[in-house]
Amino acid sequence: MKPTKQEYQESRFLTIQIKQLLFFGLLAIGCLIGLLWFFRPTDSQLEKRNLTEFPKLTLEGLMDGTFFNDESDPLHPRGLSTWYADTYPFREQLIDLNTKLQSHYGDRSERLVNGGTADEIPTGTLAPEALAGKDTTEPTVPTDSAKPNRPTETESGNTPVTTEPTTPETTEYSGHGAADVDGDATQVDDIYLLNGAGYGVYYFNQSDSEDYCRKTNQLAKNLEGKAQLYCMLCPISAGVMLSEETRNKIGCSDEAKAAEWIYQNMDASVKTVSMVNTLKAHNDEYIFFRTDHHWTALGAYYAYREWCKVKGITPHELDFFEKTYTFEGFLGTFYSKSGKDPSMAKNPDTVIAYVPNGTNSMTFYTEYNSDHYNEYSWRIVNDVSSYPRSELYGTFAGGDPPYAHAHNEEITDGSSVLVIKDSYANAFIPFLIDHYEHVYWVDFRYYAKWCNQMGYTPTISALVEREGIQDVILCQNICFIGSSKLQDIMK
């Protein structure tokens, strides 16, 4: 029998009440668990670190708010709110449950690969009209008349470092580092697993590649007479570490051929840096992480040497750097994407970072409460030994700030360079510090938003004009060249 309207409304009202009771009941249980002081952990076995300590209660801390939220470390704030979240009872079990749940519904962030089907890499060069695009007129590039005060560089805190010179390391891990890696890879989400290592995969997209060439050529014209433009397409692990046979099984594109074709279609004024074959010649060394999608500092170092050849300067040898950091137990993006693959957990990565000699000080902006940006003094190579094991790559260049600057007072010739980057360039930037007086870097994913809030024109040309920059380096993962956020600022 069909229920009456009144019966339906009463049933619906009862359902809503039950849902509300369940919601507030779970909320009350969560609050009660949070009050279990003696059940709060003090260290994380999963992340191999000490958790946030309860902040010291002082009148000053209450008045200025640092007792509740201390931003002295902008990447890892402290205070009561952080302590509460970091030491919540059963925290690690909840993290593990969340990871397992996320593994069932795919990747919702910007993908590490640019599709699932590769276009055939063409030969030759495009016709001039094709490279010019629909709009063949040169746009007027606005510039900013206001120039901000240069930030003050101060290096806070004393952290332990290794002072002995280091030499390139080789990995003894079987299956990853003994020249080309062969085998049948297993796909998990958008990565492949083979012999306890993860691999990101590149699929050539002709439309994205043509757009990137057009934008690069237009940028070179806009910078003519102002700055020299360099282009560095950073390869990812599959194109360097895997054998051709294994890459063919996966169906990924040849990164060396793709980069060569893209470079062929760039204006002669753009100085291009080829590095795939160089890195392959060193693929018996520890140049890519096993558990993360980035290259190691050693991989970035070999890329830096190739850039020096194009630039026409002498690269620094690794024993030039007087200080290094070593962080054990890194488990990066491939580890999380794989659902915490046990073979990776047994063989975590080691992060080695080389500290610039001229200065280790930088300033950068980071977003605060999604409505404004704060400026901080920081370190180009930072001690991240207290960070979670998943964040050890954060030792380089302050992570991914929208805008950063380093002033090397050991050099006084006014030289300057701007790096347009994603996180791949983070390990590359420290090697530039000892070659320039001023080094700037912006993350194309966040730069436009920062400019809009700061009142600047969100283009590379405007920044070059504002700061009088002499060299510009496009340095990003080859998979991201089709990013609209990158191409939008390439003006």
Structural write-up:
By secondary structure, the chain is an alpha/beta fold. The protein has 2 domains: 41-105, no CATH class; 128-489, no CATH class. Helices cover 31% and strands 16% of the residues. The protein has helices spanning 5-34, 59-64, 80-86, 91-102, 128-132, 206-222, 237-241, 244-250, 255-264, 276-281, 297-311, 333-337, 342-346, 447-454, 460-467, 484-489; strands at 43-44, 49-50, 186-188, 191-194, 197-200, 228-234, 271-273, 323-330, 349-355, 361-368, 372-379, 404-407, 416-421, 438-443, 471-477. The strands form 4 sheets. The protein has an 8-stranded mixed sheet, sandwiched between helices. Strands 3-4-5 form a 3-stranded antiparallel sheet. A two-stranded antiparallel ribbon has the order 1-2. A hairpin with a 4-residue loop joins β1 and β2 (49-50). The protein is globular and about 75 Å long.
- Note the beta-strand portion: 15-25%
- The order of strands across the largest sheet is 7-6-15-13-14-12-10-11
Shape: globular
Number of strands: 15
Class from helix and strand fractions:
alpha/beta
Count of alpha/pi helices: 16
The separation of the N and C termini measures 69 Å
The whole-number mean of residue pLDDT values reads: 81
Share of helix among residues? 25-40%
Low-confidence stretches: 101-115, 133-178
Number of domains: 2
Major sheet attributes: 8 strands, mixed
Evaluate the radius of gyration.
25 Å
